[in-house]
Write a structure and sequence with these properties.
This protein is mainly alpha-helical. Helix 1 runs antiparallel to helix 2 and helix 3 runs antiparallel to helix 4. The protein starts with 15 loop residues before the first helix and ends in a 6-residue tail after the last helix. The relative contact order is 0.13.
Amino acid sequence: MTFKHRLPNAGLQPYAYEKDRARNDDDEFSYSDYEQLLSDETYCRLAELRWLAAELEKELAHDDVLGDSDVHDAIFDAVANTDAPIAEAVDEYVAGKMAAHRSGVYEG
């Protein structure tokens, strides 16, 4: 499957991190919280971006097209330095939404 077809065929994979949190009894994040996030378009887009960055990093790790070239290394470094901040942004967004929800201000 080409990279451009991954997101349309991803199903719920981009949201798996929060779904796993919802299934973890030791986490205060509930399945109801997860379901509320799925109806939040901003969360969905951020989670999809996080998932795509991780997928691209995996793809580049096994990509033999560019071989061991400087171009491959530069692209891999750029992606590797991007997916962690994206994941942090999603985590911060989720934490903010859940804090608002718990305080009774969740709009979403």
